[in-house]
Amino acid sequence: MRRPSREAPETPTDGGAGEEPSPRADVPPRLTFYSRLRYWSLSNRFVLSLVVLVAGGILSAIAIAAWTPLISSPLFSGFVPGLKGTDGPNGAGPDWTLAMAIVGPILVIVGGYLATSYILARERFEHLMKTRSKAEFLRNVPEVEDLIWDLTPRDHERLIRKKQEFKIRG
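The chain above was modelled as a monomer; its predicted structure follows.
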């Protein structure tokens, strides 16, 4: 008894007999909002870490100014009094300076760590990618692949091109 062949059925994109290709054959898959946001955040990782660092510095400066005599200086007098509980009826509102005093230093630490780790990973990656020797590059591939997690998608593409240059699989 002969078994039927297990070939894939012909589809319109395979150029079947007399059939036209599917109109969706040329259209790339549509990316979700999350995928685009993730790619954008990975591509702009350093800028985002600097934004977090600066925002934390500003919040910390406002909190320090609100609890010291700096509150009477012209630099801070315009917007700090609104944070000291004067936004409610009869001037009794929430005091936002405590929240800024807590959140500000946390953002400074997180933003500083992210920016520093990006700079160090970038410098090490550039150093490892300058190699002309295939043997030296092969020794450094695990470290370079580990550094890629802290860098941008463009750097991942550079690593792929470098592997193709040295004819390395994987």
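Confidence is low (pLDDT under 50) at residues 3-16.
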